[in-house]
Here is the input.
Amino acid sequence: MSRSENKTVPTGQSVESFISAVQPANKAEDAQVLDTLFRKTTGFEPVMWGTSIVGYGRYHYRYKTGREGDFLATGFSPRKTALSIYIMPGYADFGDILSQLGKHKLGKSCLYVNKLADIDIDVLSELIRAGLKDLNQHWPVEPT
Here is the structure.
């Protein structure tokens, strides 16, 4: 079995330092709210993955091809254009929850939100829980 060489891996970077350095200030404020929400919803402490992703929990995957590796279970990144929220691995249809969320765009395992004022935070918490539950049915989720 081959172990993947993921480019995005846990680092020793401080989550608090990363969030405090986010620009502009309103995006840093949203990142702080997300950090609090993810900590409360997941029960996990955050870890920096790469230079810009705050992750909560991790899982080990092994595909039928033999490729395997570790990745964050859920998290976010305050990108320049939008907040990227990672709901891994993107298998389930969360349409019922998403229909209540508010203004957002979807990627494969990523949700894009311009600002938190555009969405319902309680619905986002529900989505995070649903994503972790779905992920755990495929690969066990562990604390970071």
In short: The longest helix spans residues 25-42. Helices lie at 15-20, 25-42, 95-101, 121-138. The mean pLDDT is 92.
